[in-house]
Design goal:
heterodimer, A: 489 residues, alpha/beta, Aspartate Aminotransferase, domain 2, Aspartate Aminotransferase, domain 1, three-stranded antiparallel beta sheet, globular, B: 457 residues, seven-stranded mixed beta sheet, four-stranded antiparallel beta sheet, 15 strands, 14% strand
Chain lengths: 489, 457
Amino acid sequence: MSQVLPLINERSQPGRRGVMPPVASAEERAAAVATLPANARRVKPLTLPEVSELDAVRHFTRLSQRNFSIDGQMYPLGSCTMKYNPKINDRVASFAGFADLHPLQEDGDTQGFLAVYWELQEVLKKVLGLPGVTLAPAAGAQGEFTGMAVIRAYHRANSPHKDTVLVPDQAHGTNPASAVLAGFKVKEIKSGPDGRVSMENLRAAIDEKTAAIMLTNPNTCGIFESDILEISKLMHAAGALLYYDGANLNAIVGRARPGDMGFDCVHMNLHKTFSTPHGGGGPGAGPVGVSARLIPYLPEPRVLKTDEGTFRMTRPGDFPNSIGRVMGFHGNAGVLVRALAYAWAQGGTGLRDVANYSTLNANYILAHLDHEIFEEPFARPCKHEALVTLRRAFKERNIRAFDVAKRLLDLGYHAPTIYFPLVVPECLLIEPTETESKQELDLFIAAMQQIATEIKETPDVLRNAPSTTPTGRLDEAEAAKALNVCCQW
Amino acid sequence: MAYTPHTPADVEAMLASIGVGSLDELFKDVPASLMLETPIDVPSMTEYEIERKFDELAGMNRAYPAGRSFLGAGAYRHYLPAAAKQLITRGEFMTAYTPYQAEVSQGTLQTIFEFQSHICGLTGLDVANASMYDGATALAEAITMSVRETGRHTAWLPELLHPHYRAVCETFLREIDVEIKTIPSVDGRTDFSAVPAGEAAVVVIQTPNMLGVIEDGVAAREAATRSMGMLVAVVNPTSLAILASPGGYGADIAVGEAQPLGIPLSFGGPYAGFFACKQQYIRKMPGRIVGRTHDKQGNPGFVLTLQTREQHIRRDRATSNICTNQGLFALLTVMYVSFLGKQGLIEVAETSLTRTMQVANGMLAIPGVSRHNPHAHFHEVALRLPIPATEFLDAMADHGILAGFALSRWWPTEEKLLLVNATELNTRQDVEAYLLAAKNVLAGVGGSQRAASAAAR
């Protein structure tokens, strides 16, 4: 594999053309441009690529070959749920009736898409066990902001002095970040020694200013919060609400519902639980489900069913207490089509299998790891992800989770999540998902066994890893110092 | 059961090897009362049935061929080359993860770096991020950044800012105590002289504005300086091929919607917001940033950089909560820009302007039609009709033409205002067909079935 791939602009030759767009004649264009005032015209010359179509095809093809991807490699990334992305989903999302529809066309023109939204809303209500759903947020973090803003609006109307949100120390960083953006103060509560919320610390933290708690269940250690019913009773008694970060929904989807646990507000990550592609960094979608008392505050727009059985988008004034728009148009509609296709491929029985087999797969890996090296900080069973720590290997042999991650790249696996959650040092969070077979898991386990042996016998192999990838370890300090983020032409 | 490979033999072997008696035993830590007894009520379909069902649903949408549509108003039809349509479906792009493990993500990282470079090239600013959710949320983030940077809490937004952008800003800024003040307009163009001297966090200019009118960047810069606020420019990337760049008139931050760079209309999403700013603000910028570096052997490569700004490290003190963004669609715009190239983008911009002027001039030749305002515009123009715009649109739909946007949907009292957009996809023939149909409709010839049934309701 060639080491250096030029930037697309570095392939430019002045005057070289790629694909020709349809154009008005040069005379027509010159006449139109001449009517623009001089001070509106571009002065600085435009510096964009000048390459042939084949140049560009080779460029992007070669770049793609420098990527790992689910289609090529297993990605046991804890908390990311990197399951197989079904191709039928991409196919249906590309139908012209969906791809070419303008967001501002009137409801009469868009009944198909409105039906997709309606159907997905109904599916998610059943999955979550909650009566209200919005499909607007573009990603999990935006879903978190939306949910917390809904909670803020609810409290503003009822008990405005409630301005503090409780967040466990093991929470994903988007939780406190989103709470702050929604206008809350954040109070962190320390987890207990069993990796769960400590009821003692929770009781001590609740006061009359507590607006809500943000929880993940199973939590970021991959363990189910067994006291959840007691927690929700405690919070509700204090006039506070429960927010559910749905990142780990894969462990319980179709078998248990956040609404039944007492959660008032839930976000899901469709690019995790519902198989929509990660795209190298998005797009995702972060629908939010809410209990009845929060429905009036959901963002715009929503999709409603009329008495005649057709669908319509909400109009301004339909829901005067709505928190308003969170996106320019209607959310990541193309992602929602894919999620609905997935929901129908699974059905209720398939979703139950997702929970069962993702959990089985994680427990299978956990049980077969070398525990001298990969220590288990918490008791089994885990749920859909397994947390191990290299705490002892670090202390005794100066080998870190980082080194294991890099060595796995050499062995053809994307690394698991490392150094998250923050509460366990030198940790690896391993989430195989349900789409990996026993045979693939056995190969992964063998790779982890090889690494455990290398740690004991030839640790330098890890320290020098990766050595089979397009680059070796990259200097992040240099990147932060040079700050070369934009090719200056 | 779909996509799970487990056979009964697999399950039995796996359970036995870990000493667990049943799948249910793995859920013994979940209170029994929470475990559903029956599966949730969602049907399951084969792949063939799914394709049929979605074919039916897609058929319930009326998507106009690009040449027969003249509707813009924030989302624009432009040609995406076939090669890009195909390359974007490569699994190595679509099913890759966020490039945290840089050594196996050089493809994604380099394309993000190229996206950042193209956005800097178009906007004339120094640094850009890997994308935001869309143009509207990018603007909200820019205002938030200005508030944080200046310590002040007043944001000046033009009256002629796209109403959805305004609405999104209101949702986010309400929670962080920002007062939005409105810059008035005169005759379809923003009057930046109305911004007083004083203590503002930010002055916003959108150009072209919601009526397609080209705004005065220099006047906006003067207003920002006078008010002590930062200047945020909301811009259309196609227009930047031929119009003045925000960097050129001194904007501190430029944001906008990258959808016009080949992203399908797709009922409003997924799109991709872009965010660029001056070098001095790089540490305050939200979103992911890719930077160049080297490995130990001196090989060049790319990594995510300045991650200490982001939520996974700074948590409650992060510059933003954004995590997953719109990566695949930022990549699509890199492909678009690469396949069309510099000259191609200029031709798209010039042709879009040309066709819009041809539609406008042809409409103005029809008795009763006049311009809303006299100002220079890009590829969108507001026209006053002799009949309500909604009636005009219904009648044009009977001719198979999606003739524009009725501004009464945003300004209820302005019944007769029509916003028309043309792009390079509206050929000379499409423009002539539009004008022929419009002449018929406005001469009272060939009524509208929809208007008649609407009246009957």
